[in-house]
Automatic annotation (TrEMBL):
Gene3D superfamilies: alpha/beta hydrolase. This is Alpha/beta hydrolase. PANTHER family: EPOXIDE HYDROLASE (PTHR43329). The keyword Membrane does not apply. The keyword Hydrolase applies. Residues 27-313 form the AB hydrolase-1 domain. Keywords: Hydrolase. The lineage of its organism: Bacteria, Pseudomonadati, Pseudomonadota, Betaproteobacteria, Burkholderiales.
Length: 336
């Protein structure tokens, strides 16, 4: 019988000591989390894929949790070390550190651009890719910040995140309350309004969130996971994750060689019906023609009633879709 015990460990990558959870044996699948989360956001998927015969690995991405820079061990990596090129490099190095030559990538929120871009740049290493919440958009010189500026918008939440120290002061004040409010308010069970959108003038990000009612928490809510993740942010702060947002303009410049390029490997996209990101400019239009950017698209799924945290809110559905996708790559005998 294969070992399906979840284990955590440290992997030495160039310039990075990467902390990751590993579960199962078989073909390698790497899960990349977004903001503000950590490896635990994939707990249900790690267990499901391990049971299905895969080796599932979920790192704390650079700037998060137990992953630390060997060059800047005491502080957060800045925007200049938080680009999509850095994320792709980490993933390539992680595959090698795990003793493999190829992997399938799965990413959610900021982890989705990380896996899309890694698959775009290294199709020889990443044989297939799945994104949750954030669809693939071919690199372009017009980034999201620029797009909003051209519309005369200056209080989009990503713009609020740009000034160093401002969002940190708000989010770091009480990490558990920050996660509680953001996770609840951006879920399908939360308030019927957009949180990750344009903020009222003078408002902070948490001003548009609300506290969940402890007596009415949904079945997917895991208080132990929330507390453990909050402890990671209490120790590290939110700056590491916020610096991914501050690298947006730099990403657009660095990705110039791939402007307009598409991903040809087999791909999958999953989003919650009530995800705030569906309100981003042009997203719904892009979803209607997603196969143009993803010629290898094998499935595009909108899960009814789910919000942004789709892999937790609809864990069983996401697990089934991922296992079916992985089986389609090599057939039922590929995993044990």
């Amino acid at each position: 019988m294969p070992d399906t015990t979840l284990q955590t460990g440290i992997f030495d990558l160039p310039g990075l000591r990467l902390h990751a959870a590993v579960q199962g044996e078989g073909p390698l699948v790497i899960f990349c989390h977004g903001f503000p989360e950590g490896w635990r956001s994939w707990r249900h998927q790690l267990a499901a894929l391990a049971a299905a015969g895969y080796r599932a690995v979920a790192p704390d991405m650079r700037g998060y949790g137990g992953t630390v820079s060997t060059k800047h061990p005491e502080g957060a990596l800045g925007p200049e070390q938080s680009t999509m090129l850095h994320q792709a490099g980490d993933l390539v190095a992680l595959v090698k550190a795990l003793g493999e030559t190829q992997a399938v990538l799965v990413g959610h929120d900021w982890g989705a651009p990380a896996v899309w871009y890694a698959a775009l740049m290294r199709p020889d290493v990443f044989r297939a890719v799945a994104g949750l919440a954030v669809p693939f958009v071919p690199p372009s010189p017009v980034d999201l910040l620029m797009a909003y500026e051209r519309q005369g918008v200056h209080t989009f939440y990503m713009q609020y995140f740009q000034a160093p120290g401002v969002a940190e002061a708000e989010l770091d004040a009480d990490p558990e309350a920050t996660l509680r409010r953001v996770w609840w308010s951006m879920s399908g069970d939360g308030p019927d309004r957009v949180v990750a959108g344009v903020l009222p003038p003078g408002a902070g990000f948490l001003d548009v969130t609300e506290e969940p009612d402890p007596a009415r928490l949904p079945a997917w809510w895991d208080t132990d996971d929330l507390r453990a993740t909050a402890e990671d942010f209490r120790r590290r702060g939110f700056a590491g994750g916020l610096n991914w947002y501050r690298a947006i303009r730099r990403n657009a410049e660095l990705m110039a060689p791939w402007y307009g390029a598409v991903i040809r490997q087999p791909s999958l996209f999953i989003v919650g019906e009530r995800d705030d990101l569906l309100a981003f400019p042009g997203v719904r239009e892009r979803l209607k023609d997603l196969k143009r950017a993803l010629p290898g698209l094998r499935g595009q799924h909108v899960l009814p009633g789910a919000g942004h945290w789709v892999q937790r809110e609809r864990a069983a559905d996401v697990n089934a879709l991922l296992v079916a996708f992985l089986r389609s790559l090599d057939g039922p005998s590929a995993a044990r």
